[in-house]
Every structure is written in C-alpha cells, then in structure tokens.
Amino acid sequence: xxxxxxxxxxxxxxSLVLLAGCANLTRIAGESEGIAWQARDMRFERRDVNxxxxxxxxxxxxxxxxxxxxxxxxxxxxxxxxxxxxxxTRTVKGRWHLAPHGELSLPxxxxxSCRLPGECQERTQNIPLWDFTMRGTDGQxxxxxxKANVALPADPSAPLVKQSWPTATGRTTSPGPAPQRxxxxxxxxxxxxYRTDGTLELVSRxxxxxxxxxxxxxxxxxxxxxxxxxxxDNVRVVRYDPPFPMFRWPLVVGNSWNxxxxxxxxxxxxxxxxxxxxxxxxxxxxAVPAGTxxxxxxxxxxxxxxxxxEQAAVVRHIPLRDDSRLERFELVAAPVASRVSRGQSGIxxxxxxxxxxxxxxxxxxxxxxxxxxxxxxxxxxxxxxTLLLDTGASYTIISxxxxxxxxxxxxxxxxxxxxVAGGREISVPFVTVPVLSVGSAEAAPLxxxxxxxYADSPGLDGVLGADFLSRFRMTLDxxxxxxxxxxxx
Length: 489
Known about the structure:
The chain has 3 helices and 36 strands. With 489 residues, the chain is mostly beta strands.
C-alpha cells in the first residue's frame, strides 16, 4: 500500500486493518433484524450544488421486509465516509412505511469532495462509504433498530453478481416478485407527492370525488381514480363524459378495459367522441428521480403510465406522441402523509442533500459579489435557486421561471402591491410554496411573490425577504462567506 493510500484511509476514518492489502471491500447487500437491504442503480451523476455542477455517486438503498410484520421507520442516521475529507453525520426524521414482505427504495447521492491536492484526479479512488442506522417500529408496535453498511464499487458500470433476496429461513429468492394483484388504495386528505410538474396534494375527498391540486391545476377523479375533469386557474380545460377510467381494480397483469365517451380539451382544441383501450402490460421496475419502484405498466392509445402500489400513485406518466401539450411527469420524492401546504413540514426519503437534518443553528455558504449577498435556496426540496438576501424586502420574490418549474402558477386574484427599487409600486401575484429551504432551515409553507426582478441578470432568481428571515436570528459573516440562522424560540 502506498503512502498516498495510507493518508487517504486515515482521513476516511476507516480502519487500516480492514484495508490490509488494499482489497476491494465492495458490500452492496446484507440483512439486519429481519430486514434485508441492497444497493441498486449505482451510477456517477452530476447535480447542481449551490449553483455549481458537481459530480457525485448516486445509488438506491432498497429495503425488503423478511419477517412478514412490516416496519415503520421514524429516524435514519447515517455516517458518510469519503476519502480525502472528513466524515459527515446526519439524522433525518420522518415516516417511511415498509409493507409486510414489501420493498422500500431510498435514493442517496453525495458529491466527490477533496481536501488534499491531487486527491480527486481519479474519481474511482474517491468512492464514499455509507453507514446507516434506522429506527422505528414493526407491525406489532415493537421498537426495532437495524443497520446497513454500504461499500460501493469503485466502478458502478462494472458487472456485478446479481444479488438475491434472503428469506426468513436463510434461502434466497429472486428480487422483486410480482404481486398477484393491487387493490384500490385508501388515501387521506393532505397526502402529498413531489413530482416534476409540482407538488400534488389531495385537498378534499367525498363519496363522489377526490380533488387533487398541483400548482394551478385541479384534478377531480372518482374514488376509483376515473378522471372527471381538469381545471387550470379555475377554468375547466379538460372534461370526460363519462369519467375516463385510468384503473380497473384490482390491477392484474393482462387485464384490459375499453372506454367510449366524449372529450372536451381546450389545450388541444378538440371536442368530440373518443375511444381507448387500456391494458395492464407488466409488473416491472421503473426508475424515476425518487428511486426505483415495482410498478404496474398500463398503456392506452395516447399515454403510458406506471402505478406503484408502494407509493399508491402513478410514479411516471408519458404521452405516446411528441406533443408538449400532453401531460408528462415523474415522481421526484416519495410521499409524506402530512398537509405540507397547510403549515406542517414533512420529510421525504430523498437524497441527503434534500433531506433536512434536525438542527437549531443552520450554517449556509453564501456568495458575496459587489457587496451583494447571494444565497442558495431549495423550493419543495427539489428545485434549486439563487436569491439575493435583502433584509429590507418585506416579501420573498421568485422568478416566473422558477415558479413554473415547481408547478406554482400564479393568478391575478392573488396580486398585492409592493414597492421596488426607486420607490416604484408594482402589482405582484403570490403563490404558496409548501417548503422553502435555506440549507437545513425551512419555512413551511411560505407565500412568495412571482416577478422577474432580475431579467437582465442570469443566475439570479429573486429576493430572499423578511417573511423568511424574520423566523430566525441571523448572523452574516461576509469574511467567511457564511450565513448563520438560529431558530427563534
């Protein structure tokens, strides 16, 4: 072992005894307390970190219940060891349900960071090690603690032996067995899903219809999931008569059903008869930004979508022809059963960079340019933006581009007068952002204005105002380029 490798091992905090002979200690599967785990979908992937493109290592940690009791995880602690830097410890609290004999996929990502000169010249020498400890209760209410120690391969593209799931008796089975059927789920008002087109929330439920909202869109469906109509800014743009059957419960591979009815679609300008034949084609793995899920693939003449029983939702929806007017989305974070947009925050099992660790004082790196302080923020835990810190601004303002990306489309009825530089008064529409995060400091929800304040300044997406900052005691250290926020009691 070379001196350089010894330095790297010491900095990583991994015992040199384990690294004797410089062996490749890949470990991508294991079992603890009746729960098996596997690391899947390993890959190098670039993401935006504080306005900079960083290369990192992504993977999905997939859990499987072997006991038949299931589990509810309430806390995930992990230590991330990485060569050439110090270890990082995080605690994430939330609620993740692992069904009896079911699977749960948790996506993780970390960027390759270096402290010693020349240490990052070869990315395969900087592979992170993850040490997970998860706490919760099983289906019988008993406290459980289980561990997963993940040592990822240096080259994620290299062929690996396909892992099989152990059983409670020690035998193995092939991963991801298809269920015989999926029954209609029961959903509670307030449940949310983070999607690429915005945050979808179930806002009301009656015997006749469920109403879901995402941005300026409102969907009405029957309790069976048949689509009744779609409103945008309180204008009905799509209507099916009778309602369009997205599902026929129970879902079973091979089942099919027909539809004949009338469609009015203001988006495409069509109004007239419509027919469709839908079929459950397969039960398979589908990879989306939220992770890899077992899902039923359903196809019609115009759309294809994947329904995940685990998530009780469509996790991917695509049109079968190239038309920007047709709906397309993917799940970007697994659902949390809390009314986020009504004032309660929820933690979803997303990559560590998106999950907020519990902390009273939050330290955030900033950029100082020409005496202006630029702060990286995250909206709905999925959309990054750069805002100008302005303690004199009453409201936080985001650009229309950022608002559109999170599905928060304003309407004129929400406008308020505000004053901008020079004392000029303008009318600005407002939208509700379920969660706005600055580092690990959060405001949930927060009403923000939508206006292009800096159209001539690419990379600047708005203003971080007193409506967010007043919730914290703020310390600005321009020398160290840090913003510290301490939660007010």
